[in-house]
Please model this.
Amino acid sequence: MQWPSFINRQLVRKRAKAIRKRVASFVFGEEVEKMDCIFCRIVSGEVESEILYQDEDVVALRDINPQAPTHLLIMPRAHISSLAEVGADQKWLLGHLIHVAGELAKREGIAESGYRLVINSGPDSGQEVPTLHLHLLGGRPL
Model:
């Protein structure tokens, strides 16, 4: 098919992909979101990453775009889109994430000098990856 010169082919393809994704999300639900989630792909081992800590519920790794000398991400193995999606039956997981962050702060040597824990929830907060994760930042005054 010959495209008219006034049509931006890249834009048409991008919009078509977005429409297909919306339709698939409507039909298949959260499974499509999980397939596109980089953190889910790291947790499953599909994407390689240096895992600093893992247990049956949580995985921790270094942020690839650090905002401090120590910048770790701690995330649940289960896909939870944001803090707003945590159910009453999952509230124990938030405590576990914070406990793991404290242990990692000790291991990284920043526990005594201090560190910051951040959870962004939703697009207006700056959450870039739509999966619940905790940022552990330290190693300098914040």
Q: What stands out?
A: Strands lie at 51-54, 58-62, 70-76, 115-118, 134-138. Confidence is low (pLDDT under 50) at residues 23-32. DSSP finds four helices and five strands in the chain.
